[in-house]
Prior knowledge:
With 726 residues, this protein is of the alpha/beta class.
Amino acid sequence: GLSTQPIWRKLWDDVMKTRPPNSENITCWRKKFLETFFSNVLHGVLDVSSDWRLNDHHFSPLLHSSPHVSQLTLCNMLQGAVELAAEHNQKVLENLAGSLRILKFQHLLSSDQSIRRSLVLLLHRLIHHGSVSQVSMYSWPVPDTVLLVLILSMSAGFWRSGNALAYHSSPCGLCREEDKAQSQKSAQERAESGRYDEKEWSDGENQKGSPRAPEEAGAEVNGHGADACLNSLLSGPRSPPLRNQACEEASSKVPCDHTSIQGGSSCCVSDQLSCHPVLRKTRRRLKSAVGKKRRCLRRSRGPYADPEDLYDFVFTVAREDNSGLLDKNSATEGENAENWPSSSPGSPCTGHAGCKKRGGSAGIFSLKAAHRFRSVSTLELFSIPLTGETCRTLSNLLSSWVSLENLVLSYNGLGANISCILSGLRALSRHSDCHLRMVRVSDVFSHMPCLELVRCILSAFPQLHTLSVSFDLKNQLEGNRPEGNPSCSEAEIPESCLEQLEIRFPRELLHTAFLLPVLKASRSLQQLSLDSATLPCSQELGLLLEALRECNPNLKKLSFHDVNLAEHQKEVLLLLQDPVLQEITFSFCRLFESSTTEFLSEIINTVKRNSSLKSLKLPGNRLGNHRLVALADIFSEDSSSSLCQLDVSSNCIKPDGLLEFTKKLEGHIQQRGGQIQFTHLRLFQNWLDQDAETAQEALRRLKAVCSVVNDSWDSSQAFADYISVM
Length: 726
């Protein structure tokens, strides 16, 4: 029953000798210490020989702490990956495969082949045969395409099957066990299918009125009834004995570079043929019967058959043309197009603007040639420029990434390539077992109006629960849409499951008429955030509030940030008296820029009468001392307010004003007999450093009433703001 937290806290001070960041938020010092200890030893930051308790040859720091590591960051030249992939750390890697959930890459640099081999080993063990559910990449200004595509494709669960994946020139032990079990199963199936083939062949011989050409007859004799098997293969359900596990995965999970075929799912027939020796010789005739020249990569051919070349399957294409990835028989332009999703509706990458085909496309590969392993459920890319080629690869991966639940693309310079990503998402949405529920897209420039992009994503993916679209600046060439793509504003939005919608407008006009179809389709919406929007007229906010009342009766949280509400006092009061909303945010909305003292009194009286409002956030509205003191009346004896959280950050509040607010609040609490629901006060970026002693007294007394969150901000940075309120 005794807590060991103080011991681990002291160990941190003794061993780490640094102040932990955000120490007030650490709930378990044991986990924090062991996880940081593992990372510091791995990256050479901590020298174990410097501490006598750790300097013992019987003690392995990595092995001891690895079972407690749930999050790991690999940086720079991936030295940590090389160390973990070393033979002497095999047990460490096994521990991580069971404990690690989040794998992060930060500030990566180009790497050579040996480093990539180590990374492949690591990713294969931690993702394909491990428990990693999230892969995040940060700050890579000039990404190495080879390395980036490697991480993306293995995160999606793709890699070459068989012995092309190796542990130091030997096949993966876990894969080897699976292959052994599969081989035994396949042998039994071949024996059964052999008897089945003979029966089909004899039945075909006994049929009357079905003459065959000599070439076909010879092929049937040599193939032991291959025609019957081909027919059963094309018809679908009759041919399970002819498939092994790899073929089943290729046909069911990897829809042939996501080009759908009507009437069945036999798009990877050539893969199935290559998996069954009886049918190999009839490959050419089968293709003519299907009516498509679909030549998939053969597992046993190609320039990358050497098991030593672990990464060559996809990743040397940055230095080669596409022919290095394709079967020699399919190097023509018409057949090479199969590696690009078709232009049919719902298929990824139609080849329009921002998504054009080019020779030597880095990272574009045939998914039919890859074995499908376990994949992650969360992918995050922060500040990593994505070229058109990389976007096409990502689109290919997304289109069948059914395990993906969360996708975050932040500041990737997508531009027109956003249409390529949308194509992949459309293809993904057609999978019945798709799990995607959250999409966040943010960038500097917007390629299309924000509301148009929202409608485009939501019409293709009504299953989403969270959608966030954020742009800093409006693209001056916004009118140049990809050729042949209909405007997303015309797309009809089906009834959606959306619960949270966040839109950051690049100073665009907020027209309620354009947002209305989204609100009508999102009856389950609970959170709405509108940032940096410009209201075109004084009636627009009223129209928006009316639409929200009619379309979204379950809305609980509403946030406005950097939206000028100085002339919308009536609408602000209507929001504050809404009986359903539980959290309202007016952040940097210039609420009191042209208001009178009566407006503040009306706000206070409205909040006092609202028993449903739990959180009121007013950062950046220049409250000053006198308005802050007045807000204390929200908690007076005659108030029926249930307000728990108040945010008055960035409001030019000085120490004497905070102390006066504290005294007034204490008086109201005393009058109510200590019965108050107020629990949290946020005070970031106020002028509390101007009188440290008074500020400390105010904070000490406030913390006896509620939880206070503040910072040591230098108020001299706010001199311009100070002048403006004088």
